[in-house]
Design brief:
Blueprint (H helix, E strand, L loop, with lengths): L1 E3 L2 H13 L4 E6 L5 H14 L4 E6 L19 H11 L3 E3 L3 H4 L19 H4 L3 H16 L3 E5 L3 H13 L5 E5 L19 H6 L1 H15 L5 H13 L4 E9 L15 E8 L2 E8 L3
Helix pairs in contact: 6-7, 9-10
Length: 285
Amino acid sequence: MKTVTTRAELRAAVAAARARDARVGLVPTMGYLHEGHLALVDAARASVGAGGFVVMSVFVNPLQFGPGEDLDRYPRDLPRDAKLAAGRGVSLLFAPTTEQMYPAGEPQVHVVPGAMADRLCGAFRPGHFRGVLTVVAKLLNLVQPDVAVFGRKDFQQATLIRRMVRDLDVPVEIVVAPTVRESDGLALSSRNLYLSPPDRQAALALSRALAAGQAAFAAGERDAAAVLARARAVLDAEPRVRLQYLELADPDTLEPAERADGRSVLAVAAHLGATRLIDNAALAG
């Protein structure tokens, strides 16, 4: 695996791969890799096939962090990331500086999402998805991959990226890989590093709440409010959880689901201490 830090090096490496007819996959990350990120690499490798070329980006994007969020303390360890990426079969690691990604400072032109970005996480993180879509659009333009892979844990992000690609006619296949969890059910996240032992234990209430909603649906419950109540009861029983939202959403529009069906997504965000965690699950699993 080769590591590059400039856009010119990135484009040259991708062009060389294209010259030998390799399919190109992209896995955008903010680094501090865990098994969830590496599962995205597996999905990318499967999508591009034998002889394919998988690019992973590691870039902590300042545009998607709001005032008072954890931009400065977000965990970073590029040598560790490079070792993990190489071991999983990444062909090229792109690790630009902020100045390399935004040479003129904050861009004057952004990708501005519509009302779908104002719900769920977007209601509490204004401007977040504008920053996400802008950097993803830049990466898609720089790499021009055949396929780009994102994680299901960031459900709203994946939905908005799919919509951006469709609405702007970006010629790329978007693959959304399943959430990877610890053996006890906690969704993997780089931010799990911040959790104290008591908060780490309390965080299991998020996945248990999702499971309670799924169980209600499996038992025949179709009233959205009743499904939410079953999930909310689990969260209310854990005093360390400070709930931000718990919603049952349509997977395509992100609007609140009036009736529960198998495609409805139960989504949750909560604070454990100073750490904000998100999780989600389709009711049918």
